[in-house]
């Protein structure tokens, strides 16, 4: 009680308060294409894009930057040396992709080209094992399992903290809209004399947000959530083609999603209002000089910023091009 009163009574200038806050919860710059805006624990970043648009790869690169140490045996890796919890709702995560990407980062920091023959056995295995220990993974097949995971998240995070002696810094969800159509089919109201609220698309989203908010109060984390993009407007595809004066074979629409249609939000309002940052990934409209690699463009929707990046996906991961 004494310590509580002493904390309340202490006078603090705005400068001192700002220094304390930035020290306790510093900004972090993530790998491309999330490098444009500084982020911190408590932020909820939504990565929106069609399939494929490297959303999972972006999460993997951010996870590697988190689990790598800042320095190891005299070599600078620039990592945070913190833990990551990855919740896979798409059920397609490949741990081998994480393993290969982590080895390439270790190679790169040591000045070893990952394409060189024999480098697969030259990486620091001790460092690799220590990094992989900081990556926790869980898979959910429906919203009931997802909610159960969130309900027990506090216990799991505390267990990881005691085991790894470090707190989980990033919570990753891939992808947040995976059960949209299943949840949409759930009944929207309770029946009979049972007053218990039934699960529906709206109540699931509200409960997800509420549970994550509760966890963030005790375990401050940066939340990164991938989400499949939905494009379109009130016009039909034929109307868009007719009004734009283009023929259907002009490649206005392709398998990666309509390039000239706006992004259409489909998640419930409870989740939309919870998101603090949103970045949209699209297939690039311009001619690419990297014909052997897919090219994408970025657009920050929240907060709205004027700049955008183009990036390709190659063996080294996501690479911004100019």
TrEMBL record:
Domain RecA family profile residues, every copy: 20-236
CDD domains: XRCC2 (cd19490)
UniProt xrefs under InterPro entries: P-loop_NTPase, RecA_ATP-bd, XRCC2
Annotated spans, Disordered: 236-260
SUPFAM superfamilies in the record: P-loop containing nucleoside triphosphate hydrolases
GO terms assigned for molecular function: ATP binding; ATP-dependent DNA damage sensor activity; DNA binding
Record-level GO BP terms: double-strand break repair via homologous recombination
Top-level taxon: Eukaryota
Biased composition (Basic and acidic residues): 247-260
GO CC term (a single one): Rad51B-Rad51C-Rad51D-XRCC2 complex
Protein name from the UniProt record: RecA family profile 1 domain-containing protein
Organism: Buddleja alternifolia
Lineage: Eukaryota, Viridiplantae, Streptophyta, Embryophyta, Tracheophyta
